[in-house]
Amino acid sequence: MDPTTAAPVPPPAPGPPSATSPAPAPSPSPAPSSAPAPSSAPGRRRLLRRRVLWLAAALTVLVVAVLLSLAVGSRTIPFGETVSALLHGGDSTDAVVVRELRVPRTVVGLAVGAALGLAGTVMQGITRNPIADPGILGVSQGAAAGVVLAISAFGVGSLTGYVWFGFVGAALATVLVYALAGHGRGGATPIRLALAGAAMSAFIASLNSLVLTTDAATMDRFRFWQVGSLSGRSADVAWQLMPFLAAGTVLVFTVARGLDALALGDDTAKGLGARTGLVRLVGALGATVLTGSAVAAAGPIAFVGLAVPHAARALVGADHRWVLTLSALLGPALLLLADALGRVLFPPSEVPAGVMTALVGVPVLVALVRRRTVVAA
Hints:
Strand content: under 5%
Largest sheet: none
Order of helices and strands: HHHHHHHHHHHHHH
CATH architecture: Orthogonal Bundle
Structural class: mainly alpha
């Protein structure tokens, strides 16, 4: 054996690990499952079932309200005659009353009620103010100013003419409110929007009063519109409302997810990726289109835009996609039921729908507030 060749060294016997030896790597633990807990799926199904049931119930109430609006009035028409007039026409007095008077009135009530319900939901969402209504940005007073201008300066005497002037007045009022609230650091925050809207509403109301108190003829014609009523609304008014209702509905539903984020606060909403300024701008634009057209067509209708969103949230939760959908059903149902009740309360006279919605809506809202307070306690 060559002495320069080293003999193979046997491997060391296994022993306890030294302090300098690396510790054995721990065995990988199983990754946490991303699947939802077993109890969440049944909970979601129950919530979905409850929401669908409430939507079905609201739709049923709306159908009943439509039938009552067509059949009930100073001249009560049997249900069979009402259906026959709708399906087959005819030249009888009942058929003419249904087709020429009550169908346009009902269609306008459907459009106005849906518009106010949607607009109220959006206004409460973008301002995070539970007592906000569609007029919080000065929209109602702006529409009133447009109607006053139409009567006093241009001699407009038809409801179809009021619609366009009222809508332009509502749009201009909203633009001025946003310009006032957005001036300075911080932009158009909810508090600034509410304050600017209140200030603009008071200013426009004073201008309207100045014109009306100095022009008796304008006051006489304006009073008929100011009380808020569906009486005398023709098919032309109904057709004029439809493009505005469609455009406003599309706008408010596009910001439904953004409204959910805004409910968590601006900082949290921005952290979730929501563009809060754009959400408020698009939401306010949609609410202005809806409110301006509704107020211009039917006058100021009280309480629908305030009470309906609260009722919808109490029934289907805080998801604005469902709240908006339910508000679009509850709004016209409330307005048509109030209008039908106003027709039969003191026959042959009628109580305006704007008065009846407040009388019907206040007890409903008080009951909802008391119910939610008890649940919270």
